[in-house]
Amino acid sequence: MPAPGGEPSVQAWIPALQATAVCLSTLWLLLTLFSRERTPLRWVWALFCASIAMAMARRLIGPDVATWSLLFAIGGCVTCNGYWLVARALFRTGRPFGAPHLAFAGTVALLIVLAQLARAGDGSSPLATAAVGEMLGLLGSTVLMLTLWEGLRGWRTHRGVERGMRALFVASYGGCVLVVSLGTAMFDPQGTGAWQAGGDPVAAVLILLVSQGLVAWRLRHPLEDLAARADDEKPNVVPSAQAPPAGFRDAEPTAVRAEDRALARTLEQHMRSERPWLRTDLKLGHLAQALDVGEYRISRAIHDVLGHRNVAHYVNRYRLDHARAMLGDPDCDGWSTLVVGLESGFGSLGAFHRAFKAAEGCTPGEYRSARPAPDDVAGRQPA
């Protein structure tokens, strides 16, 4: 609708912004669904994009198409609560969320659905409608704060690109929340919804653009890999021979030590029988899920019982043993070192060469040329 003086109204840009949000969220959703890898981050990101697409589509078609408008409104019930799960998957290692987190996000989604049904006139009493609105307002504000906290959590422990990633997340999401909430209070005190109608699609477009970049970067640089790399770069301090090393084995009671030793035996059996180390993306969370124990217990068994620096060091032990056997097998001479590395579970030739040279003092090609004796190769197999 033209504004006085013939200038186009700002309201005329709102449908274009809403359509942009629908297109972006649909594009990100399709790209995620057609990806071969299935991770918690991909699933919750796809769910969030689908919900944003429905929420913006509902505003785009308007309330005149009552049936579709209600369906889209119900489908858009995983926006802020869904983004909280995305934030947890971005900035937490292992299993980023469990049943309590999903239950909380589901409760918020249910309240959103009930609020939409009440607005559509389902015959709910005014008292029930007011109660749903109050609960939704309280839990919605909680979700916003929890989402921001995920980006700020552990701020001092991160450096470089990882800290920049978190700063971008907090600035973009926090800025959108502030602009929409404060702008509504300042420029729409009567509660007409005009400011929010334009602010919501702008915030949705910005969050979709920034978050897609963050998700893509995280999928290529998992937090577990960054932590393992930082751990590998720490100096390997050898404790004094006069005093026993301080650690779990001296500090914990005998019952707990026996429990960890039993878990270490189970883990070794799992590694030999199931060979999960052939997965290039094997993480601490995968081992914990396979054995149905907490990640801290797996980590404690690997470090304190089996004597490895970290999970990556432990997993590479099996990969290197497999690579040595292949390099020592004349039947595998036609395979390049790249193929040997990939077949042993390494994600790239560079990672294979670095790990092999650190363990053997030579490259895989040099090791193959030396052709170790079969007995020597067999002696390197895990006990």
From TrEMBL:
Parts of the chain that traverse the membrane: 12-31, 43-61, 67-86, 98-118, 124-146, 167-187, 202-219
InterPro entries in the record: Homeodomain-like_sf, HTH_AraC
Superkingdom, taxonomy of origin: Bacteria
GO terms of molecular function: DNA-binding transcription factor activity; sequence-specific DNA binding
Annotated HTH araC/xylS-type domain residues: 261-370
Glycoprotein in keyword set: no
Basic and acidic residues bias locations: 373-383
Annotated PROSITE patterns: HTH_ARAC_FAMILY_2
Disordered, as annotated region: 364-383
Keywords attached to this entry: DNA-binding, Membrane, Transcription, Transcription regulation, Transmembrane, Transmembrane helix
PANTHER family with a match to the protein in the record: ARAC-FAMILY TRANSCRIPTIONAL REGULATOR
Name recorded for this polypeptide: AraC family transcriptional regulator
